[in-house]
Every structure is written in C-alpha cells, then in structure tokens.
Design brief:
CATH superfamily: NAD(P)-binding Rossmann-like Domain
EC number: 4.1.1.35
Membrane topology: Single-pass type II membrane protein
Number of domains: 1
Helix content: 25-40%
CATH topology: Rossmann fold
CATH class: Alpha Beta
CATH architecture: 3-Layer(aba) Sandwich
Shape: globular
Radius of gyration: 19 Å
Strand order of the largest sheet: 4-3-2-5-6-7-13
Strand content: 15-25%
Organism: Albugo candida
Number of strands: 15
GO biological process, one term: UDP-D-xylose biosynthetic process
Family: Belongs to the NAD(P)-dependent epimerase/dehydratase family. UDP-glucuronic acid decarboxylase subfamily.
C-alpha cells in the first residue's frame, strides 16, 4: 500500500463524548481545535511546551471549560495518559521558529510522532497527524495532489521541517500497516485567522502588522509566487470531518483559491486603509514558487469545501489584530529572525 494513495480503513466512527489529547494544543490551530472539541462536550487534555505558543491564551480556556486540562510537556519525551483520540499538532510551523533550532524541530516531528503513535497503539486510540504542504517542497506541478511525491531538498535550510514531517508520515503508515493503529494524516496548507501570533513571521501576520503600523509591506522576490490561504474555522471543520471519516490519508486540507503574494499585500493595504508602501527584497533560496492544494479527495470523501473567502477572512483577522494586546506577546530574537521565507 502506497502512502501517496488515499487509503480507506475498516474503521467507522460515530460522534460520542470522548477524552482527547491535543499535542501542540496551545498553538494557533491547536487552540481553535481544543475549543471546538470542548464545545461538543469532549474532555480535552492540551499538552504544549510553549516554545511558539502563548500560555495566557490557553489559560483562558481553563476559566471557561471545566473539562479542559493544560499540561506543560515536550513531546520529544514520552507522555502517559488515557484518551480515546490523539491530535498531533506539535511542531513549530513558521520558518522564523522552526529554523531557530533545526535539530530540535526535526526531533519534535520524529520523536513526537513516534511517542504519540506508541501511545495510540497501547490505547487503541485514533490519531490525527498534522502534516504539511511543505512535504511537496518547491512543487513542479500545480495544484498538488496527494499522489505527488514532492520536490524537496533534504539538505536545505527548510529541510528540518519538511523532512521531519515526511518521516512522521512514514511512521504513521508503518504503525497502521504493522500494528493496525488508526491514523489520519492531513497535509495542512497555509492557514490564517484570529489567534495568530503577531510575530510568528508568516506572510499574513507580517503584512497585517506592517500595514496597521504604517510600515512598508515587505515582499520577497517579485511577488509573483503564489500561496493558497485557508481560514482557520474552515480548516478545523476539515480536520474534524477527516477524523470522523474512514479515510487514513494522506489528505490535503486547505483552500484551493490561489493568489500571488503581491496581490495579498495589496489586499491587506486596501482592507486596513493603510498608507504603507510595498517594497521588494531578494527571494530566499528554497522558497516555493507555487502552493495550491488539489482538494478532489477532500471533497469526495469528506464532502468538505472551505467556505470563507479570502477577503472575508482577512477582515476578521485584521479586526483581531487591531484589538490585540501586544504586550502579551514576545517579539522574536535576532536569531529567530534569520528566515524571511513567506509561508
């Protein structure tokens, strides 16, 4: 069985109240997922080492949900708990963060998946593995289908993240084949929305922060490179539908609407009514030129299509940033700022 195929398992599931472990649950996607699970009545155990996330945002959930537990833990070390489902979202996802300590990034992807798959095997729990569009590297085809094996430089500066996620996928499929662990491997494309860290170095947060501050909008390259941006609520819908399906994956999760980086910059300037100018800087090596998911499989097996259009999602995200208390967030150090790739 090939990991490039969308594989169907013999497992079916119906929604019931569950005890759920969310690794990396204090991060951007993780917090939205935790809240959605809590709103359905599930008991949620959130584990995070708070390297890229903010503890104060997760603590707010404790105040509103008695069935939420927050644990500081690094999943490069084993964890023991009794749960029905596991979501592995633990890994820095922005180049600014994952290039800060590339060896640690690789260990989180590999050891984190290994430990959580071992836990899932022992508990006979279902596990969602958050993979990434980065496994396709700088793709030679567009849109990217799940069958595309990628175009990745395993020695490049992004490889710590790209290859870490690829080996995590391999582990998932080997645990499925060898031990029957019910895995769900989702390849997540660029995601944005309220809850983003203002200094995470991603293109949407960078552009919005620069526009709101009246600073130049920094575009790397000529801006013709493309990305596809999925609103966070749409993504969480896709993840939950995927987890409740009988499909193992890998499965693309994102929005297939493609736009250039310079078009995104112009849209942010217009929506913020900012005096900012757009300036251009050299494009870093290994920065993908195109990134767009083929969602044929997701539409067919999940009956899922993102519904929030980019302008609507940006308006909500900009409002979130306008109201943000920036004193609660830490700016990256100079070493954190080494990467300028536009993810």
């Amino acid at each position: 069985m090939s990991a490039s195929e969308c594989v169907q398992s013999n497992c079916t599931s119906k929604h019931k109240k569950k005890r759920v472990l969310v690794a990396g649950g204090a991060g951007f996607i993780g917090l939205h997922l935790c809240k959605r699970l809590l709103d359905t009545g599930d008991e949620v155990i959130c584990v995070d080492n708070f390297f890229t996330s903010q503890r104060h945002t997760a603590i707010q959930l404790i105040q509103h949900y008695p069935n939420f537990e927050l644990i500081r833990h690094d999943i490069t070390e084993p964890i023991r708990c009794e749960v029905d489902e596991i979501y592995n979202l633990a890994c820095p996802a922005s180049p600014v963060h994952y290039q800060y300590n590339p060896i640690k990034t690789t260990k989180v992807s590999f050891l984190g998946a290994l430990h959580l798959l071992g836990l899932a095997k022992r508990l006979r729990a279902k596990m969602f593995q958050a993979s990434t569009s980065e496994v396709y590297g700088d793709p030679e085809i567009s849109p990217q289908t799940e069958a595309y094996v990628g175009h990745v430089d395993c020695t490049g500066v992004r490889a710590c993240y790209d290859e870490g996620k690829r080996v995590a996928e391999t582990l998932c499929f080997e645990y499925y084949r060898q031990h029957g662990v019910q895995v769900r491997v989702g390849r997540i494309f660029n995601t944005y929305g309220p809850g983003m860290h203002p200094y995470d170095g991603r293109v949407v947060s960078n552009f919005i922060m620069q526009a709101l501050n009246g600073e130049d909008i920094t575009v790397y390259g000529d801006g013709s490179q493309t990305r596809s941006f999925c609103y966070i609520e749409d993504l969480v819908d896709g993840i939950l539908r995927f987890m409740d399906s009988s499909i193992i994956g890998p499965l693309n999760l994102g929005n297939s609407y493609e736009m250039t980086i310079v078009d995104l910059a112009q849209l942010v300037v217009r929506l913020t009514n900012s005096p900012s100018c757009i300036v251009f800087r050299p494009l870093p090596k290994h920065d993908p030129k195109r990134r767009r998911p083929d969602l044929t499989q997701a539409r067919a097996v999940l009956n899922w299509t993102p519904s929030v259009e980019i302008e609507e999602g940006l308006i909500k995200t900009i409002q979130y940033f306008r109201n943000l208390d920036l004193t609660q967030y830490t700016r990256p150090t100079n070493k954190h700022s080494i990467s300028k790739q536009q993810k």
